[in-house]
Amino acid sequence: MHKNSDFMAEKKSDLGNSSTEGTADEIKMKLSRLKAKLKDSKRKKPVTTPKSTPKKIKSATKAKEAKKKEIKKQAEAKKQEAKKQAEAKKKEVKKKQAKKQAEAKKKQAKKQAEAKKQEAKKQAEAKKQAEEEAQRTYEEELEEQLTEEQITDFQIHKTDMDKLINHVCEIVATYGNNGIHQSDLWKKLKLTSRDGSRLALKLERMGLITREKILLKGRWTYKLIIIKSPIGTDSLSGAPCLVCPVESKCSLDGDISPKTCQFIEDWVLIELKTKKSK
Ligand code: SF4
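A: This is the predicted complex of the input protein with iron/sulfur cluster.
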């Protein structure tokens, strides 16, 4: 305001002077100078620093609240992250425990299966042994107890063994390849099972019969089958023994014996061929 009044006073003074000088050009020039001064004074008007307004305070509060909100948000996010990590850790521990338990269960199952297998094996072996035991015959026990010599030298008291052997072979031969149950044979010959079993072993060692193990009425026994047919009395006329020069030295257990005699073997073969051709 003060500056404007100075300007007006100057203006009035300038105008007063112009009337005294009296020329229009001068007035115009003075007016022009005044206008420029006015313009200049406006340009130089001091810039007043704006004081804080309620609007700015509001904005600062808003910013503060936003910052507070942001911090709260970050804390919440941090909390959520920690919770997430804790849950993941818990899950991992649980997973590990489950894996451990599954492995232990698997191990236990494997152990049980192995034990079961072992038990089954043991039972199978016991069963096999029991079966083998049940299949074991008196003759097998004899073969274990007696020597080969005791078997081949077997004699029955007051019995002509050659005659008995020949008779046994004759009976067995009548049954052909089907054979005869040894118990039936011993009954026919009125022999005890003890003697019959020993005789069967002897005949087998002599190569006259074979023994076939069979199950009869739940008991394991033998069927006797002829190998070499005995020679009938009608064909004895051709027997080499009748004209044998060493007959007196020949015996079952001697160096010269029907067991190893080539004459006998050849003669038996001829007899068999003759029988078959008939
Ligand atoms: S078995 Fe032989 S060795 Fe003995 S008597 Fe007869 S033919 Fe002679």
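Residues 240-241, 244, 246-247, 250, 256, 258, 261, 263-264 surround iron/sulfur cluster (CB under 6 Å). Strands lie at 180-181, 209-216, 219-226.
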